Amino acid sequence: MEKSSLIYNPNCSKCRASVQLLAEKHIPVELIEYLDQALSKQQLLDLMQRGIPAKDMLRVSEPAFQALNLDIDSLSEADIMNLLLTDSRLLQRPIFTHGERAIIARPVERLLEIL
């Protein structure tokens, strides 16, 4: 069986719905609370290699991002990586990995696309 993980925030309704959907489908999953333990540069690069573009990982609706007054279209992958490494709140969620693929589960049912 391929290994699965869910990078999530337990206070997020979409994250909780993802956990519930995975439980209903009897999919064992490692839960990773990224606000408690920030993702490393290598982990972020791994997500990109599994299919998530850097710009998709950035949570532009987050007040912390809006306070920076940045234009996402002007940011390079390196800029985005630095932002995510500096402030974990800027990471989009939930992120589901299964085997060699990863997907942002918005809407939640998207995680079924890689099962």
CATH fold-level name: Glutaredoxin
Percent of residues in helical segments? 25-40%
**So how many helices?**
5
Radius of gyration: 14 Å
Number of domains: 1
Question: How is this structure best summarized?
Answer:
This protein is α+β, with helices and mostly antiparallel strands and 115 residues long. The chain is built from 5 helices and 4 strands, in the order E-H-E-H-H-H-H-E-E.
Describe the protein's architecture and organization.
This protein is of the alpha+beta class. A hairpin with a 2-residue loop joins β3 (95-98) and β4 (101-104). Strands 2-1-3-4 form a four-stranded mixed β-sheet, sandwiched between helices. It has one domain (4-114): 3-Layer(aba) Sandwich (Glutaredoxin). It contains five helices and four strands; from the N terminus they run βαβααααββ. The chain is 34% helix and 15% strand. The chain has helices spanning 13-24, 41-49, 54-57, 63-66, 77-86, and strands at residues 4-8, 30-33, 95-98, 101-104. The protein is globular. It starts with a strand and ends in an 11-residue tail after the last strand.
